[in-house]
Amino acid sequence: MAARKRVVVAINPNASFGRGREVGPAVVTTLRALGHEVTSLTELDFPQLLEATRRELADKPDALVVVGGDGMVALGVMALAGSRIPLGIVPSGTGNDVCRGLGIPVDDTEAAIELLATHLLLPPRVIDAGTIAHAGGETRFACILSAGFDALVNERANRMRFPRGRSRYTVALLVELAKLRPIEYTLELDGEKRVEKALLVAVANNLSFGGGMKVAPDARLDDGLFDVVLVKPLSRLAFLRIYPRVFAGTHVGDPRVIVERASRVSIAARGVVAYADGERVAPLPITATVDARSLRVLAPTP
Q1: CA 20 to 30 Å from 222, out of 3, 141, 203, 228?
Q2: Using one digit for the tens of pLDDT, what is the confidence trace for 84-124?
Q3: In 3D, which of 80, 109, 127 has the Cα closest to residue 300?
Q4: Residues whose CB is less than 8 angstroms from the CB of residue 82 and which lie 6 or more positions away in sequence, other chains included
Q5: If phi over 0 gives left and psi between -120 and 50 gives alpha, with beta otherwise, what is residue 294?
Q6: What would the pLDDT profile of 177-225 be if each residue is shown by its tens digit?
Q7: Radius of gyration of the chain from Cα atoms?
Q8: Do residues 156 and 172 make contact, with C-beta atoms less than 8 angstroms apart?
Q9: Hey, which residues does 25 pair with through a beta bridge?
Q10: CA distances (Å), 150 to each of 25, 134, 145, 173, 262, in order?
């Protein structure tokens, strides 16, 4: 072997509602079989796992690998704030959109582990991340910050006890669709302030979220800018017509979808909670800032 690495592997055994629980042990077994020194971490909840990961990173391992979905990527990004330690990702979640943007296989676990093992021995790719300032402090993210209809769906789904699994998001979507109404936002993009009525505001470092919804199809992970997507007020029927186009990214051709670029974005609105990388962040207002070229990842360079 070319080099023996010290690797911390943080695992979410409940990724994809428990269907991905075998992926973490497979990553650990493979890396150890290749001769690497591996510390495996699992905890009862996100805060405990984040704290345990930060403790292990204090010993300056050669890499941090996260196994799970976009929420686990967010954990890695937060744990690595201010660090030059590279982040490896093996997807086992429901969305895996950061991996989609990085060219990491999302439907072939063996291929994803093989790619990780290869890039563990290569110079890392350098990409942007984002920092969200809110009333509770700061949260880092790698994919997309959302504040609008999609965040309302997430918020409702998280409050629901039934049904279990992904179907609760479908139920939540239908309930919020029945209540669909424009939200009045106060926005500030790189110092330019304005008021807009919209159904959704997304601040995108990556091109997709929600398991392949290309909300910002032209977003790049390393250009030092967010793609800020606004969906102007629509009727329910118009929304249902445009919604399927998000999966192909063709919705941005509609004049009611506005895309702008900025490195600093402030969003305020009443009754809206921001989500980033699928995780709840905080009620608005928030300010998101690009951390240009602050994150090293074990992934192919395009």
Answers
A1: 3
A2: 999 999 998 877 899 999 999 999 999 999 999 999 999 99
A3: 127
A4: none
A5: alpha
A6: 877 889 999 999 999 999 999 998 999 999 998 788 899 999 999 999 9
A7: 19
A8: yes
A9: none
A10: 33, 19, 10, 8, 21
